[in-house]
Amino acid sequence: MSSSQPNSSNDNLQSITSGDWDVSKILGYDEKQHKIYFLSTEELPRTRHLYSASTKGNFNRQCLSCDLINNCTYFRATFSHNMAYFLLTCEGPRIPMVTVHRTSDTEKLFDLEVNARVQKTVAERQMPKREYLDIKIQDYKLPLQILKPAVFMENTHYPLLLIV
Fold first, then answer.
1. Helix locations, 38-155, DSSP H
2. 88, 90, 78, 86: which is closest to 102 by C-alpha?
């Protein structure tokens, strides 16, 4: 992501973000605060967090959704027309939920949807356990997800299904 800022002699194109990760969606720009809001895979390729970055000065980037909701690493967000508030949708790995936050300090104002009935139903079921690993092959690191039975025992043999 880059920004064009007026310079004393000519326009200067500067990078707002850099690194070995992707900006997956630009959500909005607050002209008063000079901040751009976006979703990014900075933590891991299987995550989406909400970030802000200043478009003035040193472009300091800040994760707004990190540590807001326990056991949630994949988010979607929508901002109000004046950028003062945002809806934050947790899409996993926990049960999805939607919360309303103030943009200035990310304070949660209220829960819009917590899916209490779904949480109760899932709690009563034996759900598979997920394990994430990385396999290194030559110079590549390949992500791997293993789904294990809820009552997985290390010394028991299980059928294996590989999806490549």
1. 116-123
2. 86
Length of the chain as a residue count: 164
In the structure encoding, which two tokens stand for residue 133, read together? Answer: 């690993």
Residue 24, phi-psi category: left (phi > 0), alpha (psi -120 to 50), beta (remainder) = alpha
Q: Name the token pair of 1.
A: 């992501």
Tell me whether residue 144 is in a domain. no
Q: From the first residue on, what is the mean pLDDT of each consecutive set of 10 residues in the chain (164 residues)?
A: 50 67 88 91 87 82 88 93 94 90 92 89 86 88 86 87 77
Range of 73's domain?
Answer: 23-126
* Structural domains of the chain, count: 1
Q: What is the pLDDT of residue 7?
A: 47
pTM: 0.76
What are the CA-CA distances from residue 135 to residues 19, 93, 150, 160 (Å)? 22, 22, 24, 17
